[in-house]
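Hi F.,

I've been meaning to write this up properly since the lab meeting, where we talked about keeping a consistent format for the predictions we share between groups. The idea is simple: the sequence comes first, exactly as it goes in, then the structure tokens exactly as they come out, then a line or two of notes. No screenshots and no reformatting. I'm using this chain as the first example so we have something concrete to point to.
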Amino acid sequence: MSIQRYPVAPGVRLNVRSGPGTQYPIIRTLPLGVTVPVYCQTYGTWVNGPYGTTNIWDKIDDGAEYVSDAYVHTGSDGLVASRC
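Output, unedited:
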């Protein structure tokens, strides 16, 4: 299965967290204008962002790195990848 990449909202330096929620520590911050791979998706804390309010979190590597789907332009309000 190929991993799809999606753009992060324009003008956003997105925080990457160690788990699917704002209570998890920030691991790093993505630079402007990047795309992220979405390995799988899970539910976590609700976040309001440029692409709406959602509790979907995108796992963006094969370790423990998550970003809120509210900042990733997947073109869908639902899951676009398998559940983590």
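Notes:
The mean pLDDT is 96.
The chain has no helices and seven strands.

If this format works for you, I'll send the rest the same way.

G.
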